Amino acid sequence: MSWTEKAIEQLGLIPHPEGGYFKETDRATSTISAPASYSQSPPTRNLTTTIFYLLDSRSPKGHFHTNKSPTTHFHHRGRGIYVLIPKDGSRDVIEYEVGQESGRLQWIVTGEYWKASYLPEGEEGCLISEVVAPGFEFDDHEFMSKEELVRLVGEEKAKKYEWLLRKEEQKE
């Protein structure tokens, strides 16, 4: 059994709608009112939520998405590539490797970015934890459309990243 299969079993991970696998491990009992720019359903947010998140060879990519809340990521094992596209189109696409070899063991992605992740060639998996504050709610989450990808990076560059869109979002 591979280390990723063991992790899925031992941590109780299930398929994530973004791709990969996850398990929520904490949802703070303290709450705050939903910020004005967030969905008001529900009207409050937990202060924080925490998950394990894993990519492996069976589900090697996390599709482009955005969350309203900043997400702090903590690396545990393996390597991954993150792709960030500023939602306002003000900067170019940002790509970086996470893991022991790159030295990037902790990183934050704010709600100002579309985010995707994938395994580099030959990598078995990448296990991280994510802490979201204010806490994660699916009402504050959105998948990137092909139209949005093209608008932000142009037709040519969009071809390079289109494979990171969810199949439903790849259609125009």
TrEMBL record:
What sequence ranges are listed for the domain DUF985?
Answer: 6-144
CDD domains, from UniProt?
cupin_YML079wp
State the InterPro entries in the record: Cupin_DUF985, RmlC-like_jellyroll, RmlC_Cupin_sf, YML079W-like
Q: Which Gene3D superfamilies match?
A: Jelly Rolls
The record's listing under Pfam families reads: Cupin_5
What is this protein identified as?
Answer: DUF985 domain-containing protein
Provenance organism: Saitoella complicata (strain BCRC 22490 / CBS 7301 / JCM 7358 / NBRC 10748 / NRRL Y-17804)
Taxonomic path: Eukaryota, Fungi, Dikarya, Ascomycota, Taphrinomycotina
